[in-house]
Specification:
The chain is 30% helix and 35% strand. By secondary structure, the protein is α+β, with helices and mostly antiparallel strands. The strands form two sheets. It has a seven-stranded antiparallel β-sheet, covered by helices on one side. Strands 1-2 form a two-stranded antiparallel sheet. Mean pLDDT is 81; it is low at 1-19.
């Protein structure tokens, strides 16, 4: 009887440990961090808050005109992070899009859905149980690349 109880307790402990939520990383920072800690870590990496575009639950951090990070939160929980890259020519954004796409394929262990094809507008969408990750390239008038990390609502 004692062995059965110990086995049941071990099974419960194993289930409790495996139920821990996995968080995506953005620039090496976990999206499971409190929003203030995440923003402070970006500031420690040289990004500066753009107070003109920041407000209620939204913080915009800029490194330059070519790179910014927007953090959306509810309370102190991060709901979305968007990285925006602006490049000076189309080939550099195409190359960066491919690098990021390949990095996420390796990191997440899955291929993305690619709803649009072509050299001037590419979208790679990754889905996990908790997140939606979108890497979008738009090379029309101004070369632009966006990476969106978005949490799915808990059910």
């Amino acid at each position: 009887m004692k062995k059965i109880v110990m086995a049941a307790l071990a099974a419960v402990a194993l289930c409790a440990c495996s139920g821990e939520k996995e968080y995506l990383n953005c620039k090496g920072l976990s999206l499971g961090l409190p929003a203030k800690t995440f923003v402070d870590s970006l500031a420690a990496r040289g990004l500066v808050m753009d107070s003109a575009h920041s407000g209620d639950g939204l913080v915009v951090m800029r490194q330059s005109e070519a790179y910014s990070v927007t953090v959306a939160s509810q309370g102190d929980k991060i709901t979305a992070v968007e990285e925006d890259y602006r490049a000076t020519y189309n080939d550099s954004t195409r190359h960066l899009w491919q690098q990021l796409r390949d990095q996420f394929v390796e990191e997440l262990g899955r291929n993305p859905g690619v709803p649009k094809r072509g050299d001037d507008h590419k979208i790679a969408e990754f889905e996990t149980s908790d997140y939606r990750l979108v890497v979008e390239l738009d090379n029309h008038s101004v070369p632009f690349l966006r990476v969106l990390y978005e949490t799915k609502e808990e059910k």
